[in-house]
Design brief:
The structure is a single chain. The chain has a 6-stranded mixed beta sheet with strand order 17-16-15-18-19-20, sandwiched between helices. It is built from 9 helices and 21 strands. It is elongated and about 120 Å long. Helix 7 links the parallel strand 18 and strand 19. It is an alpha/beta fold. Helix content is 28%, strand content 26%.
Length: 424
């Protein structure tokens, strides 16, 4: 009863105050008729409060995402089912669901009469503009009595999780040469000659056993090479995504980081559907996702979910300390990189293993011009250093179509071979 009295609306409070004032005037003026009216006016909101307390209206709801994984820019839908239990009829119900700004406007519904024997279905659209793990809810209901004198709020449903994955753009063609997706994990396979088995070698690293030095390949390549016969012969491509906050410009959906995430997602999905094993790593070599070349959509979702939850890193420079691709072929999506970061990326890459990079002209995301003649000097310098280290480099701006950037990357890689075309 006390809870119901605390939920009196402005109309109910005014009516109660008017009744009390009329009762005081009736006593002062000794007007019995006015006192009868005052008693009725005071009793009306009290009776309504008692009615609310006695009705024991139980309102339930359920929320369903259609679907529960949506890409940026795509349309989704949320379905609400509302029902009630109780002995007496309920009044008007105002529903409001908590929706983040990145998913659209906050929906509101008014249900004038909630039936007793069936659920009422409600739907509202969502169109996310920013990737991430979004929380929808809580769903709150404001319930009023049929006279509009009393109302109270209830939380019907808590939070529901919605995964907003980055947009995947269709790509065509594959880089040829070096056997993308079919190389040996971190090593170079050399044919030793007739009567001898193939030898897998890699560059010498500090701490390697000197008894494993392969002197013939060392003399041929003019650098110390060691045998790695014990390593498995795994194939695949590593996609490196530079997600340092200091390496990107812009905010919100139009930030350079969001372009990089979408491009990395498109490349990973494209290569995996082409039958290649794909590893997605950060600029520090941390594995974000590792998927085989076969299997269904589940593996695509592993990549997309990892990118959906990815947050900007706070490190200033790239510090891997090792080959981030572990000897596999590497496709790096880079923001602004210093000369030290370029050397860090290049120094651990084995020679003969293909390395490709999409270098973002990030100042253009701050309102600058992305035309070649206006590119930042630092971007051009980083591209020159990477090319000098044997990398294939493509510079991208905010207006660069992703399929065009990928095609140019394929042409860069195909200068030593041919382009394998075909839409996948």
């Amino acid at each position: 009863m006390l809870r119901s009295l605390s939920g009196l609306t402005t109309r109910g409070r005014c009516l109660l105050a008017a009744g009390v004032a009329a009762a005081v005037c009736a006593v002062v003026l000794n007007e019995r008729d006015l006192l009868r009216v005052a008693v009725f006016v005071v009793a009306l909101p009290l009776l309504v409060a008692a009615f609310i307390a006695a009705s024991r209206v139980r309102i339930g709801a359920a929320r369903k995402m259609l679907p529960d994984r949506v890409s940026v820019g795509s349309a989704g839908e949320v379905e609400l089912d509302l029902w009630r239990n109780g002995r007496l009829p309920a009044g008007e119900v105002l529903l409001e669901d908590g929706v983040p700004y990145a998913l659209g406007a906050r929906p509101r519904f008014v249900v004038e009469r909630l039936p007793h024997d069936r659920a009422v279905g409600l739907r509202y659209p969502i169109q996310p503009v920013l990737r991430g793990i979004q929380q929808i809810g809580p769903l709150r209901a404001t319930i009023t009595d049929p006279f509009g004198l009393c109302e109270f709020e209830r939380e019907l449903i808590g939070h529901s999780r919605l995964i907003v994955v980055p947009k995947v753009v269709g790509l065509w063609g594959l880089p040829s040469g070096a056997g993308i997706g079919a190389g040996d994990d971190g090593s170079i396979r050399l044919h030793a000659g007739q009567g001898e088995t193939d030898v897998i070698v890699r560059q010498y690293r500090q701490g390697d056993d000197l008894r494993k030095v392969h002197w013939r390949s060392t003399a041929r390549r003019d650098e110390i090479m060691v045998r790695v016969e014990e390593r498995p012969w795994r194939g695949g491509t590593t996609v490196l995504l530079d997600h340092r906050a200091a390496a990107h410009h812009g905010t919100g959906p139009t930030a350079s980081l969001e372009w990089a995430v979408s491009f990395a997602a498109s490349v990973c999905v494209h290569l995996r559907r082409a039958g290649h094993r794909v590893r997605l790593v950060s600029e520090h070599g941390k594995t974000l996702a590792d998927t085989p070349g076969d299997g269904g959509e589940h593996y695509d979702n592993l990549i997309l979910d990892a990118l959906a939850a990815l947050q900007p890193a706070h490190q200033r420079d790239v510090t891997t300390g090792h080959d981030p691709a572990e000897g596999q072929e590497l496709i790096a999506v880079l923001g602004t990189v210093s000369n030290e970061s370029v050397h860090e990326l290049a120094r651990f890459r084995p020679r003969g293993i293909r390395s490709l990079a999409v270098l973002l002209d990030t100042p253009a995301w701050s309102g600058g011009v992305s035309a070649p003649e206006h590119r930042a000097a630092a971007t051009e310098e980083s591209a020159s250093l990477l090319r000098a280290a044997g990398w294939g480099v493509v510079i991208a701006g905010p207006d660069s179509p992703m399929p065009q950037v990928w095609a140019e990357l394929c042409r860069t890689a195909a200068r030593r071979g041919t382009l394998i075309g075909g839409a996948l």
